[in-house]
Amino acid sequence: MSAFDALKQNSLSFSLLPISIRELFFLTETPCDIFGMVDGLYKLILREHSFINSQVLRDLISRNHSTVFVQQDRRNDIITLQQNNLRTVTRSLSIGDAVEKGRKQLGLLTLNMSYLYDDPTDDETLSLQYQSVKNLCSFLYERPEIHEKLYHDYIKQKHHFIFAQPLLSSLFLVGILKMSHLYSFKEVESLFITSYFKDIGMSVIPTEKYDQRTLSDEERVLLNSHPKTSAQILQGRIQLSPAHFAIMENHHLFSLLTKDLHVPDTSKLDHKEAKMISGFETMVISITDVIAAMITPRPYRDATSLFDSLELAKVLMSDDYPGEFKLMVNYFKSVFFK
Ligand SMILES: [Fe+2]
């Protein structure tokens, strides 16, 4: 490498920021220069205004560019573009091909969730997320017949589990609550919002930390208090009743003190305790969360099948909530195991 090239690499290492290539999904051209790491060196891989589509991005991923780099001062260009994208899709959700629209909405919503985790105090990002989640709820409520397709397409997008899990659990929740015929649409909507935002307190730890095998004691304490932190972050900023905030704070009905934060250890389970503090709403939000945690992979374990995760749900709830368990099984049977 010439001295000039060495200088150039050095300056790039100071000015470039790593981002997930998922931030370029749903765009038709690059809003800025995109760099990749090739043999330990930064290389321009897509010039500003290059045409991109899913094939181009898939090719890059297959060439080990799951993480790409952008100039720090251009990062906001991508965020602004994707947030506008989300606004547009949210407004026109019920127009056009439902699966296509839903797939895009889920992807963009997840991206915006990652922006929100980067700065949970940003009111504009939060209100965009809140509005989009509300629209998504009515979209899903009206269309249980496309839940399965959306679920499979969403899994394929391979989002980080901390963003995928609340979305999947809320998708299941809306289907189960609708099938129960116990709730008005407005009630389903509030529970959907509660479920979707319940883990936002996990943003106190950087996303990369979740990929580590072990966390420090301090990080673990922070993580275990995430249900309360979620409510603190959202209090007074989104429209939810105190009862819904209470559900959010109690969404871990089963032990938090397991290696896999959202998957309980059944050998240490205390049914009585869970029963005491929960109504059906808290129980169903907690259980769909456990299922969504199990079917999304972790760095230290593979994803479990939907079928096997229902087996665990059976252990957790069939004694105390036999009717409700049956209802859940009926939902999964009619939507996912047709
Ligand atoms: Fe949680």
UniProtKB/TrEMBL annotation:
The protein's name in its UniProt record: HD-GYP domain-containing protein
Domain of life from the UniProt record: Bacteria
